[in-house]
Amino acid sequence: MRPSLRFTDNTLTPPPGARYGVARPTIQPFSKQMQWTDDVTIGSGTQGANGTVKSEIWVYWVNGDLDDCHYVVIQRLRGTFSPGNMLANVASSRGFFQHGLTVTNALQDGSGGPMPNAQLVAYTPSSFRSSPEIPNAPVELSMPMTLQLPSSGHWAPQEFVAGDTGSIGLANWGIADRTQPAALVQSSYFHQIQGANAEGEPVGWDPSVSPPAQWPRWYSTLYDASDNTLMPPTLSQGALQFQVLVAWELRLDAKDRPPPGGAARASTRAPEPGPPGPPPASLPVTLQTTFQQDLAAFHNPTGCRTQFTGAGSVPVISGAHHICPVTSAYPPFVWKGNLAEVIFPLPAGLAGDLTR
Questions:
Q1: Count of CB atoms situated within 10 Å of the CB of 306
Q2: Which uninterrupted H or E stretch holds 124?
Q3: CA–CA separation, 175 vs 125, rounded Å?
Q4: Which pLDDT tens digit goes with each residue over 92-145?
Q5: Which of 278, 251, 263, 283 is CA-nearest to residue 64?
Q6: E strand or H helix at 51
Q7: Biased-composition ranges for Pro residues (predicted)?
Q8: Would you say 38 and 304 are in contact if contact means Cβ atoms under 8 Å apart?
Q9: In the chain, count of helices (H) and strands (E)?
Q10: How far is the CA of 11 from the CAs of 114, 248, 324, in angstroms?
């Protein structure tokens, strides 16, 4: 069953004449090959986990107040991560299934250092735990700002609210919010939880509470009364579709603010002809995005190939309760750009005809 994913796509676009732009950098697909030779069912098989992500970086030149010039940057990520075709899904062993995905976005200056004049002002989704009554996580962003827009032959400040609204199907999954606003870092940990299937039978576990590294402490909760493995949630066996939006506000130092009617002092491109309103000011930034995909396989003694040397009347012990966790912390995707160069140029006719 494919999880639901519903979003609008046009609410980030401001009215005509606004100074804004969109960068759409390409993020290469992610992949990870997994094996577990200790499992009877998996054997020598190889399973390929994968992920694809699309990135949009919306840049708004917020110039309603010439004494307080700044940018608003909204990053929107939409993607799908999958464990691939599971090699084992029987009573003795399950895997590899996906039990977690962490998406982290960090804003830095052009050289990768801190940005003292920036703040993380909004992001979505936030903490969430699904239930039979509410299986979908809300994705809602609302970012008000003041833009200079054409009005009766002049530039005039007008209010605009950039936003997006949707939902992510997360049956028997949840989201842990790990954002660090002071560090300009937004992080969402999507993870399965212990829930129930349509028949009311228990499925899965919550790795945010019981991580694989602590397996001996909690492993018994993954087996039924007959020592059969519990099936992972349906979403853990297939594709997780997600969307993350995060908004930062970046203010310019006084020395970088463009004077009324003049070009930005630090701009890396030639000033556009008219109008005398402020052109975009040079502001290099770095956006770093990382993805961590958490997968696992586990079995009961019947599904295990290991033999332990015993003693006395039990010289050989066959099999054990094992888990094989695989954490894929993929290399970060880094976008470096000058926000002034993302802003779309004004149409030639509009640029020469407006005054303040």
A1: 12
A2: strand 118-124
A3: 8
A4: 999 999 999 999 999 999 989 989 899 999 999 999 999 999 999 999 999 999
A5: 278
A6: strand 47-62
A7: 272-282
A8: yes
A9: 4, 21
A10: 30, 17, 43
